[in-house]
Amino acid sequence: MNIVIYGAGGVGGYFGARLVEAGNNVTFIARGKHLEAIQKNGLQLKSIKGDYLVYPAKATSEISEVKNIDLILICVKTWQLAEVSEKIEPALNSNTMVISLLNGAENASILCGIIDKKHVLGGLCKVISKIEDYGVINHISYEPTIVFGELDNKKSKRALILEQLFLNAGIKTILAEDIQKEIWTKFLFISTISAIGALTRATLGEMIAIPQIKKMMFQTAKEIESIALAKGVYLPEDTIEKQFQIIASQPFDATSSLQRDVLDGKPSELEAQNGTIVRMGKELGIPTPVNSFIYYCLLPQEKKARNLN
After folding, report:
1. Which residues, 6 or more positions from 83, have their beta carbon under 8 angstroms from its beta carbon?
2. How far from each other are the two terminal CA atoms of the chain, in whole angstroms?
3. The predicted structure's pLDDT at residue 141
4. What is 181-305's CATH superfamily?
5. What is the Cα–Cα distance from 97 to 93, expressed in whole angstroms?
6. Is residue 137 a contact partner of residue 127, using CB atoms and an 8 Å limit?
7. Which of 205, 224, 254, 276 is least crowded, fewest Cβ atoms below 10 Å from its Cβ?
8. Distance (Å, rounded) from C-alpha 86 to C-alpha 43?
9. Does the keyword section mention Protease (predicted)?
């Protein structure tokens, strides 16, 4: 399959490398020194599931250079999604499939507002990985997983083909029965741990070891669950309990990408995570005091990173 990985960071670099390893024709969209390193030395994947070097690697900064694309996996930051959607629109053919693997609850609707919704499937991923150096991806922990599905939850022919594509690449794959439920479950998980990690400047293990912080995380999750229910997304009763079991199973020194971005003074996904819950709470008349506290405490630094002060 002819695949474009739009964004060759921790997520795109990992899944793209595995898809190349399985024999697919993959082009990475990257930029700057990271792109230069990939073009010169290939894309090096260091992983607890086995290292792999994509060499030579197909990489460019312009999707217009890629023809006859079957699948685009969008793996940038959530706040870049609208801009990327505009850039990919001219490159789509009638059969191109587009899946966002980003954090956030509104990615599919953002895509469908810019490109024809016939191209769009819902999706998310689970992996802890990062850019270790230019051209080098380090998969640190978690079984890398892709969860996806048609927006109407039908088991279409193309969805079944994609399921086999990912499985053939050795990727844990879930063709969702209810993709919105899966998206909101991941959204709850990531929004519970990320911004509060940036606020406390603590690792996941350090946070859950302090009962008062763990309680705040639980309250964050409860507020997100309430918003999901009001939006018509029904999460199983044990969703929060299961997410905290996953949290407890992660390495003690684990951190989120949002947390690392904030601490590095970079623009983050704050608006797409806790900021979204605060906004939706206002729209729906649902109080979100803990999410609001976390969001507004970090907002000045977010504005500074985006030169909005």
Report:
1. none
2. 45
3. 84
4. N-(1-d-carboxylethyl)-l-norvaline Dehydrogenase; domain 2 (1.10.1040.10)
5. 9
6. no
7. 205
8. 26
9. no
Q: Which residues contact 208 (CB under 8 A, 6 or more apart)?
A: 214, 217, 244, 247, 248
| Per-residue pLDDT tens digits for 265-282 | 999 999 999 999 999 999
Superfamily (CATH H level) for 2-177: NAD(P)-binding Rossmann-like Domain (3.40.50.720)
All CATH 1.10.1040.10 domain ranges of the chain, comma separated, are: 181-305
Q: How confident is the model at residue 309 (pLDDT cuts 50, 70, 90)?
A: low
- In the chain, where does the domain assigned CATH 3.40.50.720 lie? 2-177
Q: What is the pLDDT of residues 81-90, one digit of tens each?
A: 999 999 999 9
Predicted structure pTM score: 0.93
Distance CA 48, CA 96 (A): 32
